[in-house]
Amino acid sequence: MLYIIVPIYNVEKYLKECLDSIKNQSYKNFSAILINDGSTDSSKSIAEEYIRGDSRFYLINQENKGIGEARNTGIEYVFNNMYIEQNKDGRDYIGFVDSDDVISSSYFENLIYCLEKTKSKIAKTKNIYKFYDEKYDKYIFSYTSINKRGFVKDLSKNLSYKTEPWRCVISMDIMKYLRFPNMRNGEDVPFGICANVLVKNVAFCKTARYFYRRYRGSLSNQTNNLCIKQNFNINDFYGYNFIYEFFKRHNLLDKYTIPTDMIRPNLRFLLDNESYFIALKELIISFNLTPMELKVNPIFKIILDSNNAKEYYYRTMSFNEWYKNNFRVKLNREEKTIKFFGKTLFQSKYNKNNKWI
Question: Regarding the domain delimited by 2-222, which CATH topology (the fold level of the hierarchy) does it fall under?
Answer without folding.
Answer: Spore Coat Polysaccharide Biosynthesis Protein SpsA; Chain A (3.90.550)
